[in-house]
Amino acid sequence: MVIASFQAFIEVFGLSISMSLVGGLIGHFVKNGIIELPKLVIEYDEDDLKLSSNWLMKWLQRVYYFIIFVIGFRDNSNAKKKIFFDLGFLGDLLIAIGTGILAKTALSMANTSDNFAVVSSSLLAGYAGLSYLKGKQNKEFADLFPEEIDDPNPRTPPK
Predict the structure, then answer these.
(1) Do 131 and 10 contact (CB within 8 A), yes or no?
(2) pLDDT tens-place values along the chain, 159 residues long
(3) CA–CA dist 140, 46 (Å, integer)
(4) Rounded-to-integer distance, Cα 153 and Cα 58, Å
(5) What does the DSSP assignment read for 93-131?
(6) Nearest alpha-carbon partner for 41 in 4, 72, 6, 87
(7) How many CA atoms lie within 13 A of 94 on its CB side?
(8) Which of 1, 28, 29, 118 is the most exposed place for a label (fewest CB within 10 A)?
């Protein structure tokens, strides 16, 4: 089958994407308990910068060094610092869409067209794909900020 339009794409992958979105939503709420908004974390510090004593020059230097850092030019003090961007709930939905397409493609390659197989594999793919990538992402985030990822469920009362 040739997919030449968005409508044809939805006809082929609509069921698998929708079931994978359900699996992704389940995975999102199991992992987070809440809907997460996108977050941007920039590990930037000015400790080793030599700034002017003039307040205007100091402000301009800070803006300049920050822009250079964001672009990717880093000196020795900021060489290992990272910029971390997490799409949150939107990213989880994108992962679910991708895993649904992969599930449908794998079933088509196995010459299986049963809707029950599509539903079950897409649900599992959405949940498993999200759980795998979210676990990897949380590990990387915990390496950056270990004090913020102590409790995997943010809704539990503090100790």
Answers:
(1) no
(2) 678 888 988 888 888 988 988 888 887 777 767 777 777 877 777 777 778 888 898 889 888 888 888 887 776 776 677 777 777 778 878 888 888 888 888 888 888 878 888 888 888 888 887 777 767 767 776 776 665 545 555 555 655
(3) 23
(4) 42
(5) HHHHHHHHHHHHHHHHHTT---HHHHHHHHHHHHHHHHH
(6) 87
(7) 9
(8) 1
pTM of the complete model beyond 0.85 = no
Cβ–Cβ < 8 Å for 134, 92: yes
Question: If you write DSSP's letter for every residue of 32-77 in order, what string do you get?
Answer: HSSPPPPEEEE----TT----SSHHHHHHHHHHHHHHHHHT---ST
Contacts of 47 (CB under 8 A, 6+ apart): 77
Dihedral sign for Cα atoms in the order 106, 101, 97, 114? negative
Amino acid of residue 82: K
Q: Which SS3 state, helix, strand or coil, does residue 83 take?
A: strand
DSSP state of 155: T
